Amino acid sequence: MFKLNEIKELIKLVDQSSLQELEIQNEGFKLFLRKPGKTESVLVSTAPLVPGYGAPIPTPTSAEPQVERSSAGSSEAPAATPSSADIHTVVSPMVGTFYSSPSPDTPSFVGPGSKVTEKTVVCIIEAMKLMNEIEAEAKGEIVEVLVDNGQLVEYGQPLFLMKKQ
């Protein structure tokens, strides 16, 4: 089984290298990473290779097309959003489930108009049963929340737009 910190480190290494894909098998599990293209998304798949329990979940090959997102379900910033140096995009550092608040009965960490600093927690991403607090990374004001509470997010997916101060 792969540990979350190992997966994070592999994602960073692939992101900083010229590799486009990485596939690793370890202790009966398979990890497949692919850098996203214009219409691709990162796929992290762990498929147990247990004999007698069916075939593992197939991972896409370079010949198989990636699923394109429709513009209605796109998590990218709308075209009308200015892409100036004043706008900072907070992106997901991992694959997981986005939570806007620490628990269902509490208010969201931030929303449009919220003032934040570099260390302000803006959301939680649950990955492999671990709750990871995501910080704003810059000082400014949240302009837009790009994902819904409980939505699955991918590595590098934009979560918030903020105006830097």
Task: Walk me through the structure.
The chain is mostly beta strands. The protein folds into 2 domains: about 1-60, no CATH class; about 85-165, OB fold (Dihydrolipoamide Acetyltransferase, E2P) (Beta Barrel). Helix content is about 10%, strand content about 30%. The protein has 1 helix and 10 strands, in the order H-E-E-E-E-E-E-E-E-E-E. It has one helix spanning about 5-15, and strands at about 20-25, 30-35, 85-90, 95-100, 115, 120-125, 130-135, 140-145, 150-155, 160-165. The strands form 3 sheets. Strands 3-10-8-5 form a 4-stranded antiparallel sheet, with no helix packed on it. About 20% of the residues are buried. Mean pLDDT is about 75; it is low at about 40-45 and about 45-80.
List keywords for this structure.
single chain, 10 strands, mainly beta, 1 helix, OB fold (Dihydrolipoamide Acetyltransferase, E2P), 4-stranded antiparallel β-sheet
First-last Cα distance:
42 Å
Spatial strand order of the main sheet = 3-10-8-5
CATH topology of the largest domain: OB fold (Dihydrolipoamide Acetyltransferase, E2P)
CATH superfamily of the largest domain: RNA polymerase II/Efflux pump adaptor protein, barrel-sandwich hybrid domain
Q: What is the string of helix and strand elements?
A: HEEEEEEEEEE
- The coarse silhouette is globular
Assembly type: single chain
The CATH architecture name of the largest domain reads Beta Barrel
Largest sheet: 4 strands, antiparallel
Radius of gyration: 17 Å
* Unreliable spans: 38-43, 45-82
How many individual β-strands? 10
Helix content: under 10%
Please give the domain count. 2
How many individual helices?
A: 1
